[in-house]
Design goal:
It is built from four helices and seven strands; from the N terminus they run αααββββββαβ. The protein has 158 residues and is an alpha+beta fold. It has one domain.
Length: 158
C-alpha cells in the first residue's frame, strides 16, 4: 500500500504548473547531434546560422546524387540552385560549374608527448571517414567565386 506523504506538489495545486521532467527526479540532460568533428574552418559559423536543419547532410546527399544525375541542369533546378542571381552586395552572378570532391581519411597524426615529433597511425576500416566537398562556382563579372549550397540559397534569383 502506498503511504501518503505530506510533500507539496505544485503540479497538483490546480494552478496549471507542471512538475517538469520526471516527478521527483532530476531533469535529464538534453542530447546533442554529433557531427563530423574535423570539418573545414568556418563550418560552425556557416551551417548553424541557417534556417534549414542538417544542411550538411542535405549537402552530402546532393553531392552523392549530382554526379550520377542523367540531367544535371534539371537536378540543379530541382534543388533550387539559381543559374543567374544577385548577392547581398548587389553583384550579378552566373553559375559556371558545380564541383563535387570526395575524400577519405585513412590515417591520423598526433603530437608525441613532450612535443617535437608527430605520431602517425593508420586508421582501421571502421574509423575511416568519408567526406564530400560541394562547391558552386559563379562568375561575378571579374572573377570566379566559390559558394556552398547554403550560400547559394541566400542569393536572390534573377
Amino acid at each position: 500500500m502506498h503511504r501518503r506523504h505530506e510533500q507539496e506538489h505544485p503540479h497538483l495545486s490546480g494552478n496549471g504548473a507542471s512538475a517538469g521532467a520526471g516527478h521527483n527526479h532530476r531533469a535529464l540532460p538534453r542530447t546533442a547531434q554529433w557531427q563530423t568533428p574535423h570539418l573545414s574552418n568556418g563550418y560552425d559559423r556557416y551551417y548553424h546560422h541557417h534556417d534549414e536543419p542538417d544542411l550538411d547532410l542535405v549537402e552530402n546527399a546532393f553531392a552523392e546524387s549530382f554526379a550520377d544525375a542523367s540531367d544535371p541542369t534539371s537536378f540543379l533546378r530541382l534543388a533550387r540552385v539559381p543559374f543567374e542571381a544577385t548577392d547581398a552586395e548587389g553583384n550579378r552572378l552566373v553559375l559556371l560549374r558545380v564541383e563535387c570532391e570526395a575524400s577519405v581519411d585513412v590515417g591520423s597524426v598526433s603530437p608525441r608527448l613532450g612535443g617535437g615529433e608527430m605520431r602517425y597511425a593508420p586508421l582501421p576500416r571502421r574509423m575511416t571517414t568519408r567526406r564530400r566537398r560541394l562547391r558552386f562556382i559563379y562568375f561575378d563579372g571579374s572573377a570566379p567565386r566559390s559558394l556552398t549550397l547554403g550560400e547559394t540559397r541566400e542569393l536572390t534569383e534573377g
